[in-house]
Amino acid sequence: MATNIPDEAIGIHNEMVDDLSTNISDPEFQKLKRLFGEDSLTGIDMGNIKSVQELFACLVDKVFIFYGDYEQLMPKLEQVKPRLCNIVQDHAKVIRRILNADLFAPAEMTIMMHRTVYETWEGSSAAFVDCKIDPVPNRIVWKRDKTTPLRKKVLNDNHKYYYSPASPTLVIRDPNKTMDEARYQCWAEAKGKIADGDIVHLHVAVPELKEITQTSEIEQSSEDQTTPVIASSSRQLAQSNQSTAQEPETAERTQESENESSRHTGSKRSNTLLQNRKRTLSGSSSEDHLGGKRVTLTDHGCRITFGVTNEIDITRLETENDIIDGFEGATGGKGRVNAVRLMSKCIQVCIYILAAKHPSDPSSIHLAEEFKHYLLDGGTIQLSDESQTVLQIDETSIQITPHSLPKDEQSSRRMAGEFKLKCLQSGTTQLSDKSQTVIQLYDSSFEITPYNSPLDAVPELNEGKETLGIDEQFSENLTPPAIASGNGQLAQSTSEEHIGGKRVILTDQGCRILFDVTNEIDITRQETENDIIDGFEKATGEQGRVNEVRLVSKCIQVCLDISAAKHPSDPSSIHLAEEFKHYLLDGGTIQLSDESRTVLQTDNSSFEITPYNSSMNGSPCVYVSHGHFTASVGKPVIIQTYVTSSPALEAISIQWYKEDDGDIIPVEIDNKRYYGGCDECPTLIIRETTISDQGRYRCSAINTNGVGWSDTLALSVLLDKSESKVVKVNKDSLP
């Protein structure tokens, strides 16, 4: 995080965090984390945060707290452990003295809001919450909420929301009343000083449509007809392509798109059709002559992958078709998916360990712990396949569970009560109790759950209370194998021996150890289970103690190949992939057509988009959503742009250029007419388009390995003469 906070102040802050970590117990930490989960942490954050240090780092990043400013932290600490507040207050005083005691000096940094209420309407392409900061800050964050205090961070995602230190005005694409009408506040940091702007309100009106003559808001370009205000979304573009076919070339492309999309519709699409649709990896270079000049969009197609965490049938052909339908519904990119591949990405290994037969034998729990630490210390399991695959173990996924079956329904309920309390104390999210319990933890920490705890120490379940969610299908897959007892029950192994004249009894009921394997392996290969048994016996030195190994597909990787654009006004493959990703991140769903109407549960942290023409020398790759944009005079235009680069070589400089009579002129981001166009937000936004904005544009990105350039795009600006949409809107509600 870029900041000019003095190192001494950061050191005092870190010392405070360490003191809090020393003085807080694990149950107290879990309670504190849950309190923050109510208003500032996401589910992914909850899963990733495993220490007080990681919690505070996340809170600083989200600007919930800052160095010396812990006002929003104190009420939560008060609920957990009041004396911790004294630690925070003492350190905060020292930090404030280091920062000259005045963190909010308006004379040194000023955030100016142009008005207290901003107004826009649904259907507009963009809303602008004007903001000016003097001097230019190192870092800014917008916050919003329906009520004060404002606790939700507005993510600068270069898709829906755009802002940066150079152009702090918040630009909201396609404003929506339900999502975007709220109170907003800008926070900024510069040279060790921080400041908060005034809280303002954004009102989003819903216009009443009095009369609409069917005119597409976004159309294919035509030299003799007014075309789009802004190519704001690929869904709109696709809809308009289908509804307006006013020039032969456009009609031909639309018909071709419909013909291609028809191959994917219906329940009897075959793999042969998908495989026969060739992906043009050598590059799809589409050309069009606009204004007498050639516009070229070089698109090689791309791939988007993401994980699905619920169990689905990857051999079912209709599953691939359902995913294609979901993609086309989300993006409007009909016929743009070349193929869908479903692969088992994460395998859960479950090893059932037999109970000790003699008091001198190591217990099953001891063997499980030995094997766990063997893996944690870098030990490996190698398969005997042709590739000699070494299993890649997710160390955070290891769980050890002793076996014990309840003797009757009452004891089962009492045991479930114990586990429920454990869940509430440790952040566990799921409890599955049939013949035994499966635990899923938020913090993914190691958990050993004693199923054979003394029943007299177990509290009763509260009558009438809702129990925790149960993953029935998953727990059935992990039901332990029956160990012969003559009555179908899991037999206890009670070994007895007289040592020194006294009886020694060891009651060991066996246990299981679970862990995840993240590389791809063949779970149908019998030798894989034997290889895992060999690895266990090598690690523990105990032969014949593994009763069974089970391999369960825990995560499916979905891979979509997206074809290149065929025309400059078609959305690029990268843009379609980004649209689909944000559709799913924003809560959109893909529902299968199986009997259960399964809704895919996507892993939001697993999305990867891979262009097929990525730079080989490590320089950035710059992509625009379309090769041709058209806007009416006075309307905004958003030239959606994406920059990809190696994580270790992030782009450090973004610059837009306009071609003017053969000269290449840099576009100045002035926070008045031009926005974005920077490292945090490469998309170029023109607020009120004029005739002078018409022309050809390119974007460059620089990192330590070199310079990357976008294709040259064309912007056509047309006089607004053929508006046929009549909208009845309360004049007072318009900005």
Short description:
By secondary structure, the protein is an alpha+beta fold. The protein folds into six domains: 7-98, Death Domain, Fas, CATH 1.10.533; 110-205, Immunoglobulins (Immunoglobulin-like, Sandwich); 279-343 and 556-611; 344-395 and 509-553, 2-Layer Sandwich (Alpha-Beta Plaits), CATH 3.30.70; 404-455, no CATH class; 621-718, Sandwich (Immunoglobulin-like).
Report on the structure:
The protein has 6 domains: 92 residues, Death Domain, Fas (Orthogonal Bundle), CATH 1.10.533; 96 residues, Immunoglobulin-like (Sandwich); 121 residues; 97 residues, Alpha-Beta Plaits; 52 residues, no CATH class; 98 residues, Sandwich (Immunoglobulin-like), CATH 2.60.40.10. Strand 13 and strand 14 form a beta hairpin. The protein is built from 16 helices and 37 strands. Strands 20-17-23-16-24-15-25 form a 7-stranded mixed beta sheet. Strands 2, 5, 6, 9, 10 and 11 form a 6-stranded mixed beta sheet that branches. Strands 27, 30, 31, 34, 35 and 36 form a 6-stranded mixed beta sheet that branches. It is an alpha+beta fold and 735 residues long. The C terminus is likely disordered. It is globular and about 100 Å long.
Walk me through the topology.
Elements: H1 7-22, H2 26-37, H3 43-48, H4 52-61, H5 74-80, H6 84-98, E1 110-113, E2 117-121, E3 126-129, E4 131-134, E5 139-145, E6 152-154, E7 161-162, E8 170-173, H7 177-180, E9 182-190, E10 193-196, E11 200-205, E12 208-212, H8 234-243, H9 248-262, H10 271-276, E13 284-290, E14 293-299, E15 302-308, H11 317-331, E16 337-353, H12 364-376, E17 393-402, H13 409-426, E18 428-433, E19 437-441, E20 447-448, H14 472-477, E21 493-499, E22 502-508, E23 511-517, H15 526-540, E24 546-562, H16 573-585, E25 602-611, E26 621-624, E27 628-632, E28 637-639, E29 641-644, E30 653-660, E31 663-666, E32 674-676, E33 684-686, E34 695-703, E35 706-709, E36 713-718, E37 725-728
Parallel strand pairs: 2-11, 17-20, 27-36
Antiparallel strand pairs: 1-4, 3-8, 5-6, 5-9, 7-8, 9-10, 9-11, 12-37, 13-14, 15-24, 15-25, 16-23, 16-24, 17-23, 18-19, 21-22, 26-29, 28-33, 30-31, 30-34, 32-33, 34-35, 34-36
Helix pairs in contact: 1-6, 2-5, 8-11
